[in-house]
## 1
Amino acid sequence: MIYAASNPEDELQHVQHHHRFVEGIKYTGWKKERVVAEFWDGKIVLVLPRDPSYAIRKVEDVQELVDNELGFQQVVPKYPNKTKTLLFISDEKKVVGCLIAEPIKQAFRVLSEPTGPETPSSKECQRAWQCSDVPEPAVCGISRIWVFRLKRRKRIARRLKRRKRIARRLVDTLRNCFMFGCFLSTNEIAFSDPTPDGKLFATKYCNT
Ligand code: ACO
């Protein structure tokens, strides 16, 4: 984040931004929250575009943090009235995961990269994925998926042999609640312009 150290307004914004980045965003709970999944370490809440302003404000706050981290600038959803946002709320009452999804009609499969000693790894390639130009039917597009950095790919108590898998649980829950009465297959979901981490996650999740 760019700021002028001598400007009190910028200073305050910087402190607030830093605090959110390090501490995460608090969630104290709403009377009318829509809990779509419950776990041993938290719950997932669904927020829809016509929800009360306090819920929308929370989503905007989280989205701002996520977009800053992803380097996304003003990504406008194709169907703003049909966007579904899932927030993973931890036991400590913090937003530790976010998934934003929208309806889509088609998607383009990422082509597998050639591998060899001369070929840079997927991380080094950054975001230059090659996609097929043949559209395939799809139902649900994940425009953003994000997990608070301290909760990524984490194990909780080793003896319980339970991994955090917050992103996996967010996508599982999305597949269950995106369309009433059906559980979407991995072929019906697509990830929008994934980051290297997003691509590694999607490849593992979709088994592709
Ligand atoms: N490298 C390799 N494998 C990975 C990675 C990775 N970076 N991230 C996840 N996986 C694998 C895990 O090993 C796991 O496999 P398993 O279930 O067989 O054990 C599986 O994917 C599920 O992983 P989770 O633990 O559920 O993933 P996590 O909670 O750590 O979140 C995420 C993954 C969302 C990509 C996280 O790393 C993150 O927030 N990154 C920064 C933001 C980002 O880049 N988001 C994607 C943007 S693209 C988009 O939004 C469409």
## 2
Amino acid sequence: MTGNSPDLLIKNIGVLATPVGNCAAGGDGQSDIQFIENAFITVKDGVITVVGSAENLAHIIPGEKTVVIDAGGKLVTPGLVDSHTHLVFSGWRQKELSLKLKGMKYLEILKMGGGILNTVRNTRKASLDELVANGMKSLDRMLEHGTTTCEAKSGYGLNLEDELKSLMAIKEMDRYHPVDVVPTFMGAHAVPEEYRENKKEYLRLVVEEMIPRVARDKLAEFCDVFCEEGVFDIEESRYILECGRAHGLVPKLHADEITPMGGARLAAEVGALSAEHLIYATDDGIRAMAEAGTIAVLLPGTSFYLGESFARARTMIEAGVPVALATDFNPGSSPTESLQLVMNIACLKYRMTPEEVLTAVTLNAAAAINRASITGTIEVGKLADIVIWDAPDLDFIFYHYGVNLVRTVIKKGRVVVQ
Ligand code: NIG
Ligand code: FE
């Protein structure tokens, strides 16, 4: 009997709120949330085995070793998925804040050799162990705020050795931290200083040396490019993403973040799984994404922090583009690990409903990193990645803001935050 009893039983759930399915939800589907009142969940071997309502709880027979959690009548959702982070770096950039307050723009700081290039200098100097230690600390914060899976990009090495070091750091973190960390190669995050006068040669390095090596050593699943004025233009971005794809790396793209470049359309044309930022995406670009099924990963924390405009989330949802939300966690344009804060900003500035936002940080975010078949919803057969909130219902976490409302986090059936 003990063999069949669950490893974990979560009972007395006031309301369980989850999207359903294994595919990104767009259009009306974005707000399709299943609510179950007085619910319970059982877990075996890290996987959800039953999702039921209280009247069926009598059929569940806990064994001696079953861990029983009383959710106290509170809200339960899937673990959050942060589908866009620049987790691997050394050195914060708090000095940029005062420059920003004096009116200096993000791209001006980069042009002067600061910004991303400042972090590149520090990241190159850091050892693998230092990068892992920094990243683990941020992963702890993410987990405390409800994130159970995140994507992480390289892109502060910008040479073969330091890009490999960054991707190896991601591998280590994924191995040792409860949060699952999904790797993206972003050697095309900026043109490093030593290639400033010879961008062509840097492109050659990315395409002929970095991508083949990253693919050969299976260090990344995705390839991302910063398609931006003064960084990589449309044709350079296309070239890199197509080369990545030829080596098995799925394309993603930083598109139309600060300047309207036509990045949304490019993402659709190269069959990118997702396009990110999209603050200045045009109607044409949004239409192209809807037709191609490209997921929009929107980063409202970055708009907030850079003092930029906000992406047109409502237009995208109405056009049928599945929207995901992420932190963009990085030391320059979005120094926060809190996806909860991003959820609050999205609700108030994008005018996304709590239901739409929940889909955006669970199912759609998981789909944006090819993980929707294993996480992102509370359904039988998926990983038991679950958050118990100190909130009576879904609306509450969008209303009571600026504090951490996570009570308990469960990752693969194990209680990791209590
Ligand atoms: O997504 N845009 C490029 N990359 C990051 C910023 C990185 C940095 O400033 O260090 C972003 O905003
Ligand atoms: Fe980014």
